[in-house]
Queue: 2 jobs
Job 1
Amino acid sequence: MCYIFTMKTVLTGVKPTGSLHIGNYFGAIKPALTLAEKYEARYFIADYHALNTMKDAAELKNAIRGIAAGWLAVGLDPEKVVFYRQSAVPEIFELATILAAFTAKGLLNRAHAYKAAVQRNVEHGDDEDAGVNMGLFTYPILMAADILLFNADVVPVGRDQVQHVEIAQDIAKAVNFNYKKNLLKIPEALTLENSEVVPGLDGRKMSKSYDNTIPLFSSGAALRKQIMRIVTNSQGVDEPKNPGDSQIFTLYCLFASETERLEMDKRYRAGGMGWGEAKEELFRVMNRELSPLRERFNAFISEPDHMDAILRDGAEKARAIASRTLAGLRSAAGIG
Ligand code: TRP
């Protein structure tokens, strides 16, 4: 008896903006790498999406390298995962043009990012479309092309991106309906945000927009300094503390072993441990996990040619897949 397994495909894109933090590590990178063990994975750097907001070439280039080095340092295996830059796969842009012909303008008028920009303008008494470029307006079409070109079954995304995956579904259905053929696979969004809520320095969800992040690859000394900045209540050393109320404990649990967690829980409740000591303990477990990652990150950053070669290789594999989908579609459309 012979079984043929066809693995399902997981695909996601990451925008190269700013540097990676602990929230990205637990909320996006680690879950994506876990998914890559069970699925055919295609992960890419959405550099054309970033161009909408980043117009400084050096800054964008650095951000792209930072994201690539970060994912590789955490453990993305380019032999297993097709890892590429969106900009290196021209088929994506060709597909985006085809998809635009099937996308109602009204669908894009309702997309959150555009709607929010319009609303801000209206509130400020400005022209509705002030500061809105076409890249922002057509963002969901490009994202649909990213997804549909690679026959993705599941698309892990943050909650704010679910609507974009739904738009990709709508566009794919319009294409399939028109040509009466299942040319494009209908993708499903997989919301990652419930998996781990990582608290930031102030106890709210760690997020760049709250300015409360702990960078993933800062030096040991800088990491320790960040941890010392975590906001605490005014309980004294001797007072028993409720671990459930403390973001220091929540962060500790993300990095500690089961035994360490139980032990620390007891120490909080017993009293006799001040916040300073709790922070030192947090630093110890965090640095234990992050220092090898930091070393790998720095090694990748110092060898941009090596990284570029990995991404070039990934783009080649991606283009081989992409050209098949595109050829089918062009031929169905009568332009093949
Ligand atoms: N828009 C996504 C974000 O801002 C990034 C992205 C671009 C993406 N293309 C994608 C995510 C395709 C999933 C699939 O986070």
Job 2
Amino acid sequence: MEIALLGNPNTGKTSMFNNLTGSYDYVGNWSGVTVEKKVGVFKSNESKLIDLPGIYSLSPLSEDEGVVTKFLLHDPFDRILNIVDASQLERNLQLTIQLLEFGKPIVIGLNMMDVAKNRGILVNVEKLGEMLGVPVTPVVARSGKGCRELEEQVTTHFDGSFSSNLVDYGKEIDEAILALEALLQNHSAHSTRWLTIQLLEGNEYVKDYLTTFIAESNLDSLIQQTTEKALANSNAKTIAQFIYKQRQAAIAAILKESTKRDENKGIPLTEKIDAIVTNRWLGIPIFLLLMYFMFMLTFDWLGTPLSDALDGLITGPVTDGLTNLLNAAGASEFIHSLVIDGIVAGVGGVLVFVPQIFILFLFISILEDSGYMARVAFVMDRLMEKVGLNGKAFIPMIIGFGCNVPGVMAARTIETPRERLLTILLTPLMSCSARLPVYALFVGAFFTINKAFIVLSLYVLGIVVALILASVFSKTILKGETSMFVIELPPYRVPQVKALWRSTWDKSKGFVRKAGTIIFAGSVMIWILSYAGPNGMNVAMDDSFLAMIGGIFAPLLAPIGFGNWQAGAALLTGFLAKEAIISTMNIIYFAPTEAGLQELLSQYFTPLAAYSFMVFILLYIPCLATVATIYKETRSKKWTAISIVYALALAYVLSLIIYQGGKLLGLM
Ligand code: GDP
Ligand code: MG
């Protein structure tokens, strides 16, 4: 007898496999993919157990997951052993129901009984079996408890008749089943009910299979008609979601009867925290509050004093030391100015912000390691779903807060090409750490009382714009269905100091390294451009090449509040790296200290113009490294160009609205 081992990821399938089987009959790969195929022989008899990839749903998101559907459709086997995690029944039963609908005899191994017990979940195993209509055996695969009973259950004869229509999907879907039945004319040996539901859920492999009997256009019109009818009086957005919700309702009813909470146990801490943190109404406010706290820490309580101290060190002893050194070496006026006014001002101006960056990353690392970030994705899912993405896409975006480059790369974890591309396009809108120094400088100069709030508003603006654009893109150039979101919520834990240190450093080192490379080179270049002009060397700044180049853009920038060549030049260098904006300003304004620079800035910017400028910096263009990464990840010149053009247009329009609107409202 051949038995297929199926279940969600991490439910203990491999542990069970090792427990039940003694020797391997076969180890290889499933055809077409790199997923390992293992077939084991039972210890006590000749039955074979086939290990399949863990999946949350039959409808596959990736080729690897398609293995299971292909197996069910084409491979001969006798029974299914479905491993179910007793502590995660609600999610696990989604798959179980799809397997029941398939119609082959099933035995359920209810694993992780120990975990469920610890979490205060009491499962009435008999009742659960009765309601599902199949044998359920409780086990602990890790210790081997219950495995003998399960083995006996699965290999000996049992009455394989059970109801395969546990879930009532409504009359529209029942009609679709009859329609497919008529189209199939007994050509397929598989359950028509199962085929119909899988087809409607978007299972490509089932559709492929059906096209061997039925013209694709017929299938498409069946899907379309059923979708229209079923969604007409439902609040589901897609037919897949509709089916998912029907199943969810049936599962809730089953669990209500067959599980209960252990009264003596008390609710576990993780669940107590989650009840608040992932609450429908509180989830997003809590996230915003935490971000606000993070910026207070970065800008007011800790980061700024540290940065000021570093600034004092660089502009004081370091500059003095270097000046003495240069004088002693008899350096020329040119070299002296290059080092002090170019490199020290440019690189030092950026390095000053290292403490703030570090604190920000430490905070983000704490949120990640404690398990909170997974909750943020979960909380954001509801919003993301409305705009054609799912919560998973928020994770690359959060990474993008650190640096857009790894953020764009993290979009690889998103399975559907449409959502992946969308995420890649939107991640650069997340305010990365390189933009932080610009905010720090400007809020320090113009918004001393509510620094954290102003910075928070910029971060939130990035997110909101991304959500709106996602919605626009998914209605226009990137149409398609949103895939279902499944995420493991790990239990909360106290982050370990060593791990925290490592991940904070991993994130910050890029910033430091960039200061030594691209910012260094950029500073030299900018300084030379500011030192030389059409009329020779050592010209007044306003007659330099830099002023000429920046001046080209100045008229364009006037309507958005900063029509001076300095801003134009800074924005141009900002494309190389956003920190270069700070370097450029330090060099241009020739400011001896950060405080001095802030004072000078107020001659060129009003507070309103400063806010408009920060919004422009947030949105106007992904930096060079990000553009290169977008190209690498999409392999498309078109999408890379779109990512630049839309950002520029968006930045200009928003800054225009903010500046002109602000002026109309009488703001300065
Ligand atoms: P698979 O991904 O479904 O193959 O799951 P694995 O067999 O790799 O198990 C995932 C994790 O759960 C491993 O760390 C196992 O040791 C653990 N595990 C498996 N079964 C049990 C169980 O019954 N109780 C507990 N506490 N842990 C288990
Ligand atoms: Mg495994």
